[in-house]
Amino acid sequence: MSIPNSIPAAFDLQLAYQHQRRKTFGYAQRRDVLRRLSAEIRAREPQIIAALQADFGKPASETILSEILVVQQDIKHTLRHLRRWMRPRRVVPTLIGFGTSARVEYQARGQCLIIAPWNYPFNLAFGPLVSCIAAGNSAIVKPSEMTPATSALIGEIVAAVFPPELVTVIEGGIPESTELLALPFDHIFFTGSPAVGQIVMAAAAKTLASVTLELGGKSPTIIGPDADIKQAAKWVAFGKFSNGGQTCIAPDHLYVHETRRAEFITELGARIASAYADGPTSPHLARMVNAAHADRVWGLVQDARAKGAALDVDGMRAGDAIGPTVLGGITPDMDIDGAEIFGPVLPIMGYSDIDTVIAQITARPKPLALYIFAQDKALVRRVLDQTSSGGVGVNLTMAQYSHNNLPFGGVNNSGIGNAHGMYGFRAFSHERAVLRNRFSLIPLIFPPYTGRVRRLIGVVRRVLG
Ligand code: NAD
């Protein structure tokens, strides 16, 4: 079948296929197509690395780790567990359900739309697609216009693996996205900014499509008074500067206990010097995705400097590349204190009372990630109990993303719903309640409400409390 040449045609083709999909797209077919996707990705690894290099200078090692390997692991994990995930789940009988059998069946939602961002353009298009296919759906995938080389390659890979009635890629930006969002999809899986998340949810409200929103925000990091500073500096540098800082779960800003502040900044500086010796031109550092984004991030640094921030590590700029930068003396009037930074710039604030840090975190929208470095279990517990975030990393950063058995998602401003592994499968599944009658006693209390029936209702009331 040829690839449809318009958005309505792509949608209609998948719509016409829904009946067939329900009948034929079972466990074996899903496994088969996921295996073919894995093989296609393996065969095209050099192209994937080249595309991300072209789009924003992503180092090959980072592409292998955070784009290719993550998706391959997702596929492998899904293939290993899919049969179990698909299996209907028996639920514990209840008194009212006496004489019935109850189970939850996982049914494909149907026609899905996946909108991906540019920052991990490969991973965040194929990751959701793996879950979508595992759950038995069809999908239209809209990658980001900001990473054109990767988006084109995503289109090629999808066309090589999937028939268009099952999966199609629509490339483009806001106009294409808007046109897609007006169509009556059954489920929309969106990854991107909270601002566009609101647009997506408003569009979904029109057709009452269910949504999974994987959004962003300002993820805080806390360094406690007893933290292992060397380890903390290593993890923070990894989390903050991987992908050029353009990571939804990157530490956005950092609170360090005053007693350890100088030591932490020294360690972080040493870490930056050894990992990214060439500053903005380091081959180990991705550049900003485009000039506008580089201007925005650099503008945050300039604004903070003009308002009195200290430049603890001067990252410098070379074209669209910005070197790892560390700022101190941050005040609330600085732009960097308000926006998601999404670049290799880390503002560091000192604190002496954890309650003030908790108060500052809870005063902001709930972040996607929160990191705490501390040995004191009571301190960690206190931060866990008194804050909210999509996920938490204790004495590490980022790795919570790649744990296949953990849900990945935000809360309110940082997202709605979860992705990854079984959670991704469920995001793309309708949990359908199925109750079968075997010898239910409920008909005994059907009308007419004679004296005998009323007495029985009285008994039922007493038994059920
Ligand atoms: P974005 O919201 O600007 O764009 C995401 C997608 O939405 C793109 O495909 C884009 O074409 C489309 N889009 C943009 N404006 C639109 C509009 N007005 N109407 C309809 N569609 C529109 O996000 P981005 O800049 O690509 O990515 C960065 C953001 O994504 C950050 O906030 C980051 O934290 C977040 N993010 C979240 C996750 C996660 O898993 N939670 C992962 C990566 C990025």
Summarize the topology:
Layout: H1 7-24, H2 27-43, H3 45-56, H4 60-86, E1 89-90, E2 100-108, E3 111-115, H5 123-134, E4 138-142, H6 148-161, E5 167-169, H7 174-181, E6 187-191, H8 194-207, E7 210-214, E8 220-223, H9 229-241, E9 253-257, H10 261-275, H11 291-306, E10 310-313, E11 317-318, E12 321-322, E13 325-328, E14 345-351, H12 354-363, E15 369-373, H13 377-386, E16 391-394, E17 415-416, H14 421-427, E18 429-437, H15 451-464
Parallel strand pairs: 3-4, 3-6, 4-5, 6-7, 8-9, 8-15, 9-14, 13-14, 15-16
Antiparallel strand pairs: 1-2, 2-18, 7-17, 10-13, 11-12
Bound molecules: nicotinamide-adenine-dinucleotide.
Tell me about this structure.
It holds the Pfam family Aldedh. It comes from Amylibacter marinus. Residues 24-433 form the Aldehyde dehydrogenase domain. There is one protein chain. The protein has 465 residues and is of the alpha/beta class. The chain folds into two domains: 7-215 and 415-432, Aldehyde Dehydrogenase, Chain A, domain 1 (3-Layer(aba) Sandwich), CATH 3.40.605; 220-402, Aldehyde Dehydrogenase, Chain A, domain 2. The chain contains 15 helices and 18 strands. The chain has helices at 7-24, 27-43, 45-56, 60-86, 123-134, 148-161, 174-181, 194-207, 229-241, 261-275, 291-306, 354-363, 377-386, 421-427, 451-464; strands at 89-90, 100-108, 111-115, 138-142, 167-169, 187-191, 210-214, 220-223, 253-257, 310-313, 317-318, 321-322, 325-328, 345-351, 369-373, 391-394, 415-416, 429-437. It has a seven-stranded mixed β-sheet with strand order 10-13-14-9-8-15-16, with helices on both faces. The chain has a six-stranded mixed β-sheet with strand order 5-4-3-6-7-17, with helices on both faces. Strand 11 and strand 12 form a beta hairpin. Helix 2 (27-43) crosses helix 6, helix 3 crosses helix 4 and helix 9 (229-241) crosses helix 10. The longest helix has 27 residues, at 60-86. It is globular, with a radius of gyration of 25 Å. The relative contact order is 0.13. It binds nicotinamide-adenine-dinucleotide (NAD). The site of nicotinamide-adenine-dinucleotide has 28 residues, from helix 7 and helix 8.
